[in-house]
Structure formats: C-alpha cells, structure tokens
Amino acid sequence: NGCCFGLPSDLPWACVFPPESLAGDVYPGMHVHPTQLYESAYMLLVFAGLLLFDRTTDGRRPPLMAGVLTGWFLLLYGMGRFFVEMLRWYENEMILIPSPRFTLSQLISLAMVVLGMVLIVTAKRRLPAPSVGKRRAVSAHDSGQIRGSASAERK
C-alpha cells in the first residue's frame, strides 16, 4: 500500500519508489531505506528462532512455562520494531518528541518490550504450558480390551 517507507538513504540496497506512490511523492526520485524488507527479514528470523526455541524439548530443559513464548515474541518484536521505526518516515502528527525523534509506534514498541519481559520473568509462578501432541498413550489393558482384565472377568 506504499506506507511505512524509509527515510532517505545512500546505502547500496536503498530503493526508489514509483512517483505515483506516497513515498515517491514525499521523496521523488530519492533512494530510501526499504523498511518493509528490514521488518520482514527480522520477523522471519524471530519466527525461526522462536520455533526452534519451542521445539527443543529433548529432555535437556523442562517444558516452557505458560506465557514464555508469547513474552519472547513481544520482547523481540518490540525491540526490532523500535529500531526499524528510527528509519521510517512519519507525518509530523505521529512524532511525539521531535528531537531526538520518538514516534507513537516506538512508544507502543517499548510497551511490548516491557510486557514481554514481565511475562518471561513471572513465568516461574505459573504452571507449565500444556503439551500439545504429547498425550499419554492408552494401552489396551487400560481400556479393558485385554482378556482377563477386570471388566472382561466380570462378564
């Protein structure tokens, strides 16, 4: 949709937006940070890292406590978003503090970082997260299907 474009840049991977886009209107013919790509690449790394973190329960560490994975997502997303926001163009109304520039999105990002830290730190007080796909196998004896079991003997 053309929003969330970056500030002018002279880096080799900076890009020029079409003149009919908002970025092309604000910075006609100028190279800008591809902040959409920065955030996409960062979030792909966060996803891969959290997926590995969640899947490495091979007995060397206890299962994750409820809220830990969400806490890490909020913490990592908030940190990445805070820094990407430094490279984005914003209308003056979205800038809370002009110098150093601090935006509403950065404030929200900081709140996410704090909430993530709270979830991680307070996880020790909660029960472990439910194990998905790790149900106890019900044996034929438990279900009364073996001859000689208590239910078969009553018949």
In words, what does this structure look like?
There is one protein chain. The chain has 155 residues and is mainly α. Helices cover 43% and strands 3% of the residues. It has helices at residues 22-26, 35-55, 68-85, 104-121, 150-153, and strands at residues 95-97, 102-103. Strands 1-2 form a two-stranded antiparallel ribbon. Residues 135-139 and 149-153 have low confidence and may be disordered.
Fraction of residues in helix: 40-55%
The total of beta strands comes to 2
- Compressed to H and E, one letter per element, the order equals HHHEEHH
Distance between the termini: 71 Å
How many individual helices? 5
Task: Write a concise keyword list for the protein shown above.
mainly alpha, two-stranded antiparallel sheet, 155 residues, single chain
Topology:
Blueprint: H1 22-26, H2 35-55, H3 68-85, E1 95-97, E2 102-103, H4 104-121, H5 150-153
Antiparallel strand pairs: 1-2
Helix pairs in contact: 2-3, 3-4
Short description:
The protein has 155 residues and is mainly alpha-helical.
